[in-house]
Amino acid sequence: MKRFVLIFILFFSINGFAQDSTYTRKIINVLTSKNFWGRGYTKNGMEKAADYIFAEYKKLGLIPFSTDYKQHFSFPVNTFPGKMMVEVNGRKLIPGKDFIVDNESAGLKISSNLEKIDSLNFQGNSNLKVVLKDKLTWSVATEVADYTTVQVNRKNFTETPKSINAEIENKFVPNFDASNICGFVKGTKYPDSILIITAHYDHLGGMGAETYFPGANDNAAGVATLLSLAKYYANKPQPYSIGFICFAGEEAGLLGSRYFTEHPLVALNKIKFLINLDLVGTGESGITVVNASVYPKAFAILNKINNEHKYISKINSRGKAANSDHYFFTEKDVPAFFIYTQGGPTAYHDVFDRPETLPLTEYNDLFKLIIDFNKKLME
């Protein structure tokens, strides 16, 4: 019996920091639920997500960077809160699956014949365009065009578009209120030195009153991993302080992270390293590290750890790129990696990025790799 207990203790001393993925799954399921409406700009989706993360920070005992966990800012955004009806050739199309409207589109109500421009492009009146696409990918716009573009999935609609009946409602919000959620675990030996983990919690929100974009991989998975790391470090304070920032406004152009670097709640020169997590819900084909070639010594450390423990099948090196929230920190001379996983489901910026199809293939291994990497940075 004593031998069994000893083996049990030894096992957990080795594997104790492999975070229970049940917590991660719970976070992903909550953030992608209908109640959060794509963590975007209608039905208070982003605000609900911010409040949920705020509550998790408080539960874990994180210390706010300032007087509050929230860093407020605002920006303009084009939203689609209501009517989203499109019929082509008399056939009613399903929002998100059969069609999307371009994110900068104006609202309109129209019944019109369509003039063929070429095999993929069709014109209604001067204010309406119809485009056939192989994949429907949505985003967020901070301005409104003077026309409307409807993208139709040509895999689901094989006819030549000849007529359209549409009613689309948009609402431009010049000052949409958002907030970054910021907290930290105080270091035990060098509290003024800080390592930071970041992830954006916003997604695309909803297109009309009945269609929303869940955003499981992008980026509920990143937020869930961040919160799992926060849970670990809250129970095991480190020599350095460990900070956690969940950004808003990433999908609108990295606006939350840009605001933070322009109005930092911690001196940027105190940040020894930053790891940004975005699209980390897969991993069959390994991971990619943006800024690997910018910080070769740090990348060598990461690779050495991975080679020793065989965590990830492959770590791909990538150079500088303005493709997620690490970017403006790098521009301010804060060393940073942006890590994303590869392989698995290809859903991206569409209605199919759902929690039930997200495998979290390399979640535990990525978790352990980050823990070991941060530990090495604090030596």
UniProtKB/TrEMBL annotation:
<dbReference type="InterPro" id="IPR045175">
    <property type="entry name" value="M28_fam"/>
</dbReference>
<keyword id="KW-0378">Hydrolase</keyword>
<keyword id="KW-0732">Signal</keyword>
<keyword id="KW-0645">Protease</keyword>
<feature type="signal peptide">
    <location>
        <begin position="1"/>
        <end position="18"/>
    </location>
</feature>
<keyword id="KW-0031">Aminopeptidase</keyword>
<dbReference type="Pfam" id="PF04389">
    <property type="entry name" value="Peptidase_M28"/>
</dbReference>
<dbReference type="GO" id="GO:0006508">
    <property type="term" value="P:proteolysis"/>
</dbReference>
<dbReference type="GO" id="GO:0008235">
    <property type="term" value="F:metalloexopeptidase activity"/>
</dbReference>
<feature type="domain" description="Peptidase M28">
    <location>
        <begin position="180"/>
        <end position="372"/>
    </location>
</feature>
<dbReference type="GO" id="GO:0004177">
    <property type="term" value="F:aminopeptidase activity"/>
</dbReference>
<dbReference type="InterPro" id="IPR007484">
    <property type="entry name" value="Peptidase_M28"/>
</dbReference>
<protein>
    <submittedName>
        <fullName>Aminopeptidase</fullName>
    </submittedName>
</protein>
